[in-house]
Specification:
Number of domains: 2
Strand order of the largest sheet: 1-2
CATH superfamily of the largest domain: Cytochrome c-like domain
Mean pLDDT: 93
Low-confidence stretches: 1-5, 11-21
CATH architecture of the largest domain: Orthogonal Bundle
Radius of gyration: 21 Å
Number of strands: 2
Order of helices and strands: HHHHHHHHHEHEHHHH
CATH topology of the largest domain: Cytochrome Bc1 Complex, Chain D, domain 2
Distance between the termini: 31 Å
CATH class of the largest domain: Mainly Alpha
């Protein structure tokens, strides 16, 4: 009961704070820049979002009907996973990267740790076809969906056509992911002048702006770019990041700068999940950065922080936690949709 009241309270706060949104199906905060995503080419609708939500949680997208998008992207951990460093896929195969968080995707121009996908409507195709993730073909996914009465109904309501296509499948998943907007943390409340930072949080904020904000730009807390952040190469994975896509030597060990929103719940950290604690991340940037030809220029000059200053920055980072996002019922497993199908 207490958890239910907390959720309702948080959702109510969100509604009050964002009455100014342009589209009732997605939050577009005033402090955010203009979205990158072109909504005119995939207009949001309640039925498309409902379909996308069902697909996101349905393991029907995988070859053995055991792995769903949510298997690696849990809402309660900011739509990533927390129980292991590297993603686990079909037949418990181990991937070579830690899964990314999913939030504020309308403001991103590339996806995956290496930016291999440059449009959200195509993003889901990568894990679906990856042999260690879902190991399925889009043609077979469509065939399975077409033979499922629930989905023929959902696709008809969403697209006005019960003939299912790969394009509509991917666009529906994209629509659900577009609604995953996180913008109601304590930080956001402070920016709206509804509350204030503690002295420690405020000191951490000042230190953050001085040492971290050049890559983790406010208010999205990412610059949507790729950086070599001085990590050593894990020789068991040999993951060279962006270089795998471009084959440009200057992109060696560059990975997409992740958002820091909800970082409290998105551990383990880095592309390979090597750090379990934020304190380890702080120690990396102050003591363990490996200098190289392609190191991000922001890290050429060493970052000097006392132990207390590191704690203050972490205190600020915790203000980026958005519980109305992490516990939003609109993002939960859609049991009502699947129960409706079971009754049929």
């Amino acid at each position: 009961m207490k958890r239910k009241l907390l959720i309702l309270s948080l959702i109510s706060l969100t509604i009050v704070a964002f009455r100014f949104i342009d589209n009732p199906l997605i939050v577009l905060p005033k402090i955010f820049p203009k979205p990158v995503y072109d909504f005119s080419k995939n207009p949001l609708s309640e039925n498309k979002i409902k379909l996308g939500r069902a697909l996101f949680y349905d393991p029907i997208l995988s070859r053995n009907n055991m792995i769903s998008c949510a298997s690696c992207h849990s809402q309660f951990s900011a739509f990533t996973h927390v129980d292991h460093a590297l993603s686990h896929g079909i037949e418990d195969k181990i991937g070579f990267r830690n899964s990314t968080t999913l939030m504020n995707l309308a403001w991103q121009s590339s996806f995956m740790r290496d930016g291999a996908i440059n449009h959200l409507d195509m993003q889901a195709l990568a894990p679906i076809s990856n042999p260690v993730e879902m190991d399925e073909s889009m043609i077979h996914v469509v065939s399975k969906l077409q033979s499922n009465q629930l989905y023929t109904k959902l696709f008809y309501k969403a697209f006005g056509d019960s003939v299912i296509t790969g394009e509509h499948t991917l666009k529906a998943i994209s629509q659900f992911m577009l609604t995953l907007v996180s913008c109601n943390s304590k930080y956001d409340s402070v920016m709206r002048k509804q509350t204030s930072f503690t002295e420690q949080e405020n000191n951490g904020y000042k230190l953050f702006k001085k040492n971290c904000a050049s890559c983790h730009n406010e208010p999205l807390f990412t610059n949507d770019e790729f950086r070599n952040n001085g990590l050593s190469l894990d020789t068991s994975l040999n993951d060279y990041g962006r270089y795998r896509v471009t084959k440009n030597p200057s992109d060696s060990l560059k990975f997409k700068v992740p958002t820091l929103r909800n970082i409290e719940f998105s551990y383990p950290y880095m592309h390979d999940g090597r750090f379990k604690k934020l304190s380890q991340v702080m120690n990396h940037y102050t003591n363990e950065v490996i200098k190289s030809k392609y190191l991000s220029p922001e890290l050429d000059k060493s970052i000097v922080l006392s132990s207390n200053e590191k704690v203050d920055i972490i205190a600020f980072l915790l203000t980026l936690t958005d519980k109305s996002f992490l516990f939003n019922p609109q993002y939960f497993y859609p049991k009502e949709i699947f129960l409706e199908s079971a009754k049929d």
